[in-house]
């Protein structure tokens, strides 16, 4: 099973989001990037950032686009209850906490298991 290290190596390109589902259990979310009027969404396999500060050719975000993405992700953290990180590069990320804090780091999440779930949806249970 893949680990969060695959995300940390940027195998899906930068930037991307890591959602902490539980201790040492992560989900990576790709970000679709476009230049345009500010809009963002964090959703299972459907996360995107549209902002005038997006460089579509390189995937680089200016300071305003980063802040817009971080606020959007922080709102998702508070809505869904999962801690998240926005990974801009192998040595540039932010950790977003349910208490509203944003902690900058040079070390993205690593290790653990990488799973895919539809966050925000109730878990499916088998019945007997």
Residue stretches low in confidence (pLDDT < 50, at least 5 long) are: 121-128
Number of domains: 1
The secondary-structure class comes to alpha+beta
**Percentage of β-strand residues:** 25-35%
Helical fraction: 10-25%
How many helical stretches? 2
**Helix and strand pattern:** HEEEEHEEEE
Distance between the termini: 29 Å
Q: Largest sheet, if any? A: 8 strands, mixed
What's the overall average pLDDT, rounded?
83
Secondary structure tally: strands? 8
CA-based shape: globular
Q: For the CA atoms, what is the radius of gyration?
A: 14 Å
Task: Outline the secondary-structure elements.
Blueprint: H1 4-8, E1 16-22, E2 25-34, E3 39-41, E4 47-50, H2 63-80, E5 83-89, E6 92-96, E7 102-105, E8 113-114
Parallel strand pairs: 2-4, 2-8
Antiparallel strand pairs: 1-2, 1-5, 3-4, 5-6, 6-7
Give descriptors for this structure.
128 residues, 8-stranded mixed sheet, 2 helices, single chain, 8 strands, globular, alpha+beta, disordered C terminus
Description:
The structure is a single chain. This protein has 128 residues and is an alpha+beta fold. It has one domain (4-114). 18% of the residues lie in helices and 33% in strands. It contains two helices and eight strands. Strands 1, 2, 3, 4, 5, 6, 7 and 8 form an eight-stranded mixed β-sheet that branches. β1 (16-22) and β2 form a beta hairpin. The protein is globular and about 35 Å long. Residues 121-128 have low confidence and may be disordered.
């Amino acid at each position: 099973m893949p680990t969060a290290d695959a995300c940390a190596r940027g195998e899906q390109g930068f930037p991307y989001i890591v959602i902490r589902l539980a201790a040492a259990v992560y989900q990576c979310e790709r970000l679709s990037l476009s230049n345009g009027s500010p809009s963002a969404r964090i959703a299972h396999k459907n996360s995107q950032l549209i902002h005038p500060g997006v460089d579509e050719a390189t995937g680089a975000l200016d300071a305003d686009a980063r802040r817009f993405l971080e606020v959007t992700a922080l709102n998702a953290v508070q809505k869904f209850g999962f801690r998240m990180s926005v990974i801009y590069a192998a040595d540039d990320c932010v950790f977003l906490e349910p208490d509203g804090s944003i902690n900058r780091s040079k070390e993205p999440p690593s290790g653990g298991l990488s799973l895919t779930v539809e966050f925000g949806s109730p878990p499916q249970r088998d019945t007997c």
